[in-house]
């Protein structure tokens, strides 16, 4: 997963360096990383905020604003990761005993 966060980070910093803000920056990140979720964008933003190599205050403000905005977003389709449903094997399924009161 670190590779995905790094790609989102690069898109985020690259867009911010070009002067993109708010929705334009968000659309830029999604254009470069179509499967980016709000959760991953926030993680990449926090990575940028803690990166000692990023010293431009304007870039930090833009990244911070994007992180706050998307941290408070409702869950989007990209925020869900596919989960495999376990198959119920009758030999492995144990029945629960009723609890006596």
Written description of the protein model:
The protein is mainly alpha-helical and 101 residues long. It has one domain (2-75). Helix content is 54%, strand content 0%.
Average of the residue pLDDT scores = 81
Share of residues in strands: under 5%
Count structural domains. Answer: 1
What structural category characterises the helix and strand content? Answer: mainly alpha
Task: Give the terminus-to-terminus CA distance.
Answer: 47 Å
Helix and strand pattern: HHHH
Shape: elongated
Q: Which characteristics define this entry?
A:
single chain; 101 residues; mainly alpha; 54% helix; elongated
Can I get a quick summary?
The chain has 101 residues and is an all-alpha fold.
